Amino acid sequence: MPSARRPSTSPTRTRRPATTGTSRLRRTLHGPRLALHRRPRPVADTPADAAAAASTATPAPKPRNATLAALGVRNFRLYVFSQVLTNTSGWAARVAQDWLVLSLTGSAALVGLTVTLQFVPMLLLGLVGGVVADRFPRRRVLMVTQSVFGLSTLAIAVLAISGHVQAWHVLVAAFVSGLATVFDNPARQAFVHEVAGPEHLRQAISVNSAVFQLGGLVGPAVAGGLISAVGEGWTFLLNAVACLAAVVLLAVMRTGELTAAPVVARAKGQLREGLAYVRRSPRILWSVVLVGFVAITGVNMATVLAAYTDQVFRTDAGGYALLTSMLAVGALTGALLSTRRRGSRITHLVLLAGAIGLLQLLAAAAPSRPVFITVLIAMGVVTLLYLTGSNTLVQTTVAPHVRGRVMALYVLVLLGAQAVSGTLVGWICEHLGARAGMVACGVGPLLGAVVVGLALARRSDGGTRATIHRFTHRSPADEAPEPAREAAAA
């Protein structure tokens, strides 16, 4: 058997482990130093050493705050600034618009008509706006819509400040604003991918959604202060200036740094294609269904807080401002937390929707104002976490070529349900009391959590665990090109 031992004792076989051992020792000594102290690797003495060093090089560490990294993108930073301006001032202008109609006419019915004129175009043409967002460059669409917003509110501002405004002027401006919203919302949602790029998409979506939702909470508080201090006309003027500033910010973006989005050629059946895509994509479908349940009663808090101020706590406008501000504090906290999340899952959304409903039931039973305010802050946190998570899940799941149409459907359900909920919750508060109105607010999110949760569980033949895995983890089909993904979903 000597021949069997000869290979193990040959000089060649004994020298190779020594070389490997040296390389391993070098990696052992130098690797931890790089990882722990981030010191530069010593210069290699030979090409072999250089190759070994390259093979063991530690990748560059990612920024500890991914949100700050996203805001480091110049185009996205300009976009966020424009959204902060237009969302906050836009919500302030809506409040000023309703108050101006009421002061001019004394008719609550005309105030309701003003709101209707703003939302009817979205309900009738919302999906058409999605087709436009997919068919034309989204930055150009946004520049046009923001110009329309700015000019319409500027006209009302001039008329109000000069003392020549009439109710029909405001009604016409509300309808024009509603038409512009049809095309603005889906384009704005889909444009996030272009300004931030795929590397920062999740954080960018969270920031954009947080800014949008915060505008709806902070804007009315800003309007209250401006109306009482300088009047409705100057509130409209502020919104006009903000919209025109947004046009400038969009214009100065660097086109070469935008992530090009596919422009869909004009063809028949594009609306049906978008709806069919949602139907074949379970995560998007159930996200849209759930946001409809939540929005129908759960996120329209202005009416019920006004009723609490008048009926329960017996305070004035300052008390209403306090409640609104506390909800905004919670929303701001939720917005900051949402930017640190790495992703979103449909099961998380179901839990958050249930939490919104439970907190609203708890608020309805709150025995004192300090307890109510504490629950209100928690409600703001959870609501923003849900809304940003839902938006993130839809946008990171949808294919680029139908992004505009899918986001149009999502916004249509979200805003359409809120339009319905305002009248519904207001009627309950007026006839059954503020606490009953808060209970009604909690019914929608809780019912949605139950319905969608049961639907997710029933889709799996193997039980709830298999369903949760199916809807919360991306499968190979999710990462496949769009035709393969649609075939897998079918």
Automatic annotation (TrEMBL):
Could you tell me which Pfam families the record lists for this protein?
MFS_3
Q: Which GO terms describe its cellular component?
A: plasma membrane
The record gives the membrane topology as: Multi-pass membrane protein
UniProt keyword annotations, A-Z = Cell membrane, Membrane, Transmembrane, Transmembrane helix, Transport
List localization entries. Cell membrane
Q: Which regions span the lipid bilayer?
A: 108-129, 141-161, 167-183, 204-227, 233-252, 284-308, 320-337, 349-366, 372-394, 406-428, 434-457
Biased region (Low complexity) positions are: 1-23, 44-59
Record's signal peptide: none
Task: Tell me one GO molecular function of this protein.
Answer: transmembrane transporter activity
Q: Where is the Major facilitator superfamily (MFS) profile domain?
A: 67-460
Q: Where is this region: Disordered?
A: 1-63, 467-490
The main place the protein resides is membrane
* Top-rank lineage group of the source organism: Bacteria
Q: Where do Basic residues bias regions lie?
A: 24-41
Q: What name is this protein filed under? A: MFS transporter
Taxonomic source organism: Cellulomonas pakistanensis
